[in-house]
Amino acid sequence: xxxxxxxxxxxxxxxxxxxxxxxxxxxxxxxxxxxxxxxxxxxxxxxxxxxxxxxxxxxxxxxxxxxxxxxxxxxxx
Length: 77
Known about the structure:
This protein is α+β, with helices and mostly antiparallel strands. The protein has two helices and three strands, in the order ββαβα. Strands 2-1-3 form a three-stranded antiparallel sheet. The chain starts with 5 loop residues before the first strand and ends with a helix.
């Protein structure tokens, strides 16, 4: 059975909460999506240096988040 690691992605979004971009994938892994969501408020409180109208958190499989971030880089750059 393959291990499933849940990660937290920090997302920067436009005013309407759309057009989100992955800013960072947090180093820590979580045991479940629920545990990731429980940790989110503490992480969000410490994100004072990000210049986006809306900052959100996405909890999902680490490989899935990393693949999405890589695809975003290719699209932009």
